TrEMBL record:
Organism: Ignisphaera aggregans
Function description: Involved in the regulation of the intracellular balance of NAD and NADP, and is a key enzyme in the biosynthesis of NADP. Catalyzes specifically the phosphorylation on 2'-hydroxyl of the adenosine moiety of NAD to yield NADP.
Active site, per annotation: 64
Name the record gives this protein: NAD kinase
Localization per record: Cytoplasm
Family the UniProt entry places it in: Belongs to the NAD kinase family.
Keyword Amino-acid biosynthesis: no
Main subcellular location of this protein, as a coarse class: cytoplasm
Amino acid sequence: MIIGLTAKKGGRIPYEIAREILRYCETLGIEVLVDEDIAKDLEWSKTFSLGIESIDFLVVVGGDGTLLRTIHKLGSMRIPIVTVKAGRRGFLFDVDPPEVRNRLRDLVEGRYTIHEYMMLKIAIDGVEQKHIPYAVNDVVVAVSRYLGSRVISLEVRVDGDILYRFDGDGAIVATPLGSSAYTFSAGGPVVDVNVEAITITPLAPLQPNARPVVLSANRVLEIENVSEGDTATCIVDGDTVAELLPRGRVTISRAEFGVRFVRFKRFETYRRVQSCEF
């Protein structure tokens, strides 16, 4: 078994946990390769290139931001991910720091399950596909920060048919895993992670008919910027990907594969939302 290890770069607590993982894996006889971006900080000589070299499992230490950026780097590599929480936001995480040793032993002895969660594939007019990551949580088409208080006009189509056209701050398209993230704050529905669906939630729409909608995961959405001369911003999992020019279009569909998480216990979406365990 070969395990890869990455952690939030420069984080004191994530680094402490990462060192503990390295020490304990040595006692278990597990070969660990450290992400080359942080190997020098951890003083570890055995390294790997994230998203290029294959490993059996990947341990991510940090918060949701670290995890999402790591998944983006993995691209189409379907490596099972063990999540160790060491950040302010950790809704997607499964292992708390005091549990690390026990969960590593569970991993070695096969006491785990692998859950695959759907992601979204995004195509943006004028942007090369290799520069667009798959979305784990959501895709946001929003008013550009340069426009201040102005609204944008968007037209949303589902399988080529118009769903609605509205003026507002933008729209969020989310996976079930991401339905408890930004779209939840915007009034969108929480969708069970075991349901394959896509949600779209308008942001502060002026038209009353523009309401959140839950769609089959097999649908294809198109969001077109129909504003007169104003650009919009396309954001994937919190990171700005591109500016969307007038008449520019974002096409969103279910990805051909999902992200794979190693789970040692049941992932209870509703309990986490109710208790704000993130």
